[in-house]
TrEMBL record:
Stated name of the protein: DUF4437 domain-containing protein
Listed Pfam families: DUF4437
Listed SUPFAM superfamilies: RmlC-like cupins
Protein source organism: Dactylosporangium roseum
UniProt-listed Gene3D superfamilies: Jelly Rolls
């Protein structure tokens, strides 16, 4: 479990499917399921999602069958508590359905904002047709950095897929994660290695306000992540494979 909203039941999770796992009976959930394969492969119906394969399955979407012959680790987001629907129907909103996107395909885009530091590209995976919520991957070059803090009017969520990200509360490594509320100032950031990140917004599309003044930037910041209750006993120290920086 990466994050959980106890009121709505929405969550961000890492799900591990063991080798040989199968779900042969048709099934639909009462919540949206958004998935991004980190390792292995997962088949949903006739669609096989390999590494960095993505899908957004709205509530009510019928999965005829699911399987993971060799196992998989899947970054999965639910819009509510993921319960099986009482009856399997075809009442899905097709406008919100994204059956498959391969993040290895498609072009990179850039020039998001005049103050956005150069040296990065973005690939959109999804934009909701009603509220504009977005999911995308962002890749940056090694030694890229900026000196301005920023904020957004929406919730911003990130999972670090590869590389390192240096910020004002420490160094994040592959497997690190944050969930940031709206209007929260953060940054500046840089990456000594270059990196690949998966981002989501909740509450609308991404827009950014930058501070007018630049700040000092350190490639070796003090490691002091902001942690939720239950992780503070880790003492704010990184461990092998990454750190939980919120």
């Amino acid at each position: 479990m990466l994050s959980l909203d106890e009121e709505s039941g929405s969550s961000s999770t890492l799900l591990r499917y063991p080798a040989g796992w199968r779900q042969d009976d048709p099934q639909a959930l009462t919540a949206d399921e958004e998935l991004f394969v980190l390792a292995g492969s997962l088949t949903v119906g006739d669609v096989r999602h390999e590494r960095y394969g993505y899908a957004h399955l709205p509530a009510g979407y019928v999965r005829p069958a699911m399987a993971s012959p060799h196992g998989a680790v899947v970054l999965t987001f639910f819009s509510g508590e993921p319960r099986a629907a009482a009856a399997v129907t075809r009442g899905v909103d097709e406008a919100r359905l994204v059956e498959a996107v391969d993040a290895f395909d498609g072009p990179w885009t850039g020039n998001f904002h005049p103050r956005f530091p150069s040296g990065a590209g973005r690939k959109f995976l999804r934009e909701d047709p009603y509220d504009g919520e977005q999911t995308w991957v962002l890749g940056t070059m090694p030694l890229r950095w900026g000196r301005r803090a920023e904020k957004h009017p929406v919730v911003e969520e990130m999972y670090l897929l590869a590389g390192e990200l240096v910020g004002h509360v420490g160094t994040m490594r592959a497997g690190a994660y944050f969930w940031r509320p709206e209007e929260e100032w953060h940054g500046p950031f840089g990456s000594p290695t270059g990196n690949l990140m998966l981002f989501r917004t909740k509450g609308g599309p991404l827009s950014t306000v930058y501070e007018d003044d630049e700040r000092e930037f350190s490639w070796q910041p003090e490691h002091r992540p902001i942690l939720p209750p239950g992780l503070t006993e880790l003492g704010g120290k990184p461990w092998d494979g990454g750190c939980a920086c919120y």
